[in-house]
Amino acid sequence: MATDGETIIAFDLYGTLLSTESIAKELAKQFGQGKAAFLAATWRKYQLEYTWRLNSMNQYIPFSTITQRSLKHTLSENCIAGSEAATSSLMSAYDSLSTFPDVPPALEHLTKIPSITPVVFSNGTQEMVGNSVQHSPDLSPYSKVFKDIITVEEVQKFKPHPDVYDHLAKKVGKSREQMRDMWLVSGNPFDVVGAKAVGMKACWVDRGGSGWSDELIEGEAGRPDLVVKELDEVVDGVRRVQCGG
Fold first, then answer.
1. What Rg do the C-alpha atoms of the chain give, in angstroms?
2. Nearest to 4, CA basis, from 150, 181, 163
3. Longest dimension (CA), the chain
4. Can you name the residues that pair with 149 across neighbouring β-strands?
5. pLDDT tens digits, 127-162
6. CA neighbours within 13 Å on the CB side: how many for 204?
7. Which residue of 153, 217, 235, 244 sits 20 to 30 Å from the alpha carbon of 226, by its own alpha carbon?
8. Residues contacting 19, CB < 8 A, separation 6+
């Protein structure tokens, strides 16, 4: 896909381009405003936990199924009876999550930089991610920015398993040795650490300004190469790192 001189930047979808917290709007319609933010955070917690448990057990369930089951887990744990209609509505809403406010101008900026090859790289199924990129009211206007949509579905592993990053490299035409010149951009620390573990460069989007606190891997190997507060800072930051700045 990429040609000589181009820089591959792989953008995570959920929690980076799309706000998983924005599902709270739909949760509020179903279960009330007072519980919505808490339910959204808990749903996301179990969604990710399920992927990590499946990796550990060497098993795979599509992310769409995981998303539905983690919703049911969340509702059951909080003694909330969720109807099939409510579940179906929430799953449909997951295809139309809102972007973070800094995403549209950053993607618009990318259209003017031919030396960057942006791709989406996600735990989601091809159908889920395709729906979000092509049909989400917030994200679909920028669908042509991305040169490819790459998901873990073919590998049947989830981030941060090393196989998924190897799969990303193959899909963009890079060897394992060339992964050191590829970039991951993610708001999820576990994703950043996973990319670093296979030799990729990684940018962490720290919108909350809380600073890096993940201590799983000591030293620079466990830290992002670049930290930004907004997505529009990524391109200039990548250039600085590439130039040794």
1. 18
2. 181
3. 56
4. 120
5. 999 999 998 899 999 999 999 999 999 999 999 999
6. 22
7. 153
8. 97, 98, 99, 100
Neighbours of 212 (CB within 10 A): 13
CA 80 to chain centre: 28
pTM to 2 decimal places = 0.95
Contact 4, 178 (CB under 8 A): no
In the predicted structure, residue 208 carries a pLDDT above the cut 70: yes
Q: For residue 238, how many C-alpha atoms fall within 13 Å in the half-sphere facing its CB?
A: 28
Specify the amino acid at residue 105: P
Q: Are 121 and 184 contacting, i.e. CB atoms less than 8 angstroms apart?
A: yes
